[in-house]
Amino acid sequence: QSGNDEVLKAMGRPITRGQYTELVEMLRSSIPDLALTTDVIVGFPGETEEKFMDTKNFIESIAFAGGHVFTYSPRSGTAAAEMPDQVDVKIRKERSRKMLRLAHSSLDSFNHGFLGRTQDVLFEQRSGEDWTGLTGNYIRVYVNVPSDLTNRIVPVRLIEVMGDGVRGGLII
What we know:
Blueprint: H1 5-11, H2 17-30, E1 38-42, H3 49-62, E2 67-71, H4 89-112, E3 118-127, E4 130-135, E5 140-143, E6 153-162, E7 165-170
Parallel strand pairs: 1-2, 5-7
Antiparallel strand pairs: 3-4, 3-6, 4-5, 6-7
């Protein structure tokens, strides 16, 4: 939820970025093509620009397959609401925009790494003229075919990154 040890400690998180990095390395060495995402809170009390940049740089170094970004907002009765060094609302919103751009960029980079490869896709539903489904590592795939693919697992060659996923072609 942060890439800065001081902010993690203030949040009451029992892990450091070094421990997290070790865990990620172990997982990636054990699970090929792992899609690892994250949840990040920006603007937590005491998060200076330097600490925010620590988080941004850490997230870039981990190369997540996307993530969710939450802008801290004080909740009455919580310890964080009473902490000193509350971050200005405008700064929180700007940090949130920057982190959202990074999350989208990370997803895009992850998806690009699979172009040209064939993946099994579990198709769920029609989305406009396309069928949409997910690979085993949660890449959203779109194919344009007339047949009903509902609840079928089909091999698909991943061709082009688009929006939140990848355009694919069925392997026949």
